Amino acid sequence: MVDLRHLQPLIVPAEYVQLGNWDLPHLPLPNPAFLLTWVEFGEGLIYLTRDEYSELELASPQWQQHALDNVRQTQWFHQQSKESEAGELEWIAFVNDEDTCSSSKILLQVELKRIFPQGYLIGLPDRACALAVSTQCTEDALMQVQELIAQMHASATTPMSPLLHPSTDFQVPEAWAAPLTGDPTSAAILALFDV
User: Fold this and answer.
1) 81/72: higher pLDDT
2) Three-state DSSP state, 138
3) Is 43 exposed, middle or buried (0-12, 13-18, 19+ CB in 10 A)?
4) 41: which of 18, 64, 71, 104 is 20 to 30 A away, CA to CA?
5) pTM to 2 decimal places
6) Using an 8 Å Cβ cutoff, are 30 and 170 in contact?
7) So which domain of life are we looking at (predicted)?
8) How do the domains of the chain map onto residue ranges?
């Protein structure tokens, strides 16, 4: 049985399925170039199997919410961020540490909508890293982040996209994205960004 405490969502290229050699449980995302699947962190990264998926569906009706909440529970690790001269957050870059899929933090739409109330874009150059970019960022910051995404994509272990995408391309059901009841982690994340 899967240990829900170690299960997290992971965004992967849709070509995994399109190539016909990958048959693991997944959810198509609004952007057809990407899929959402799930992995368990233990001694390495292990993809959720179809049998485990079926067991979770029967035993734990809110398992997707728990999996996404595990991303919220991991350190809100961002390797780089940029603020404007006025002190407005322009973008955040998330990079994997050893026990999380930091790129999955772009699925935390509840927090990101609060951090970027005017909207945000998503960069996903590599399966292991992602960026959230304010739609209000300056032209200079936008050029800088586009160059960063292009560089990260060019040297990616698992290349995803060299482009910026609307945040709606990575929306998951609201019930999955909601923090678990009574969990203070979401408020702690927002406090890091003075939200």
Assistant:
1) 72
2) coil
3) exposed
4) 18
5) 0.90
6) yes
7) Bacteria
8) 4-73, 80-192
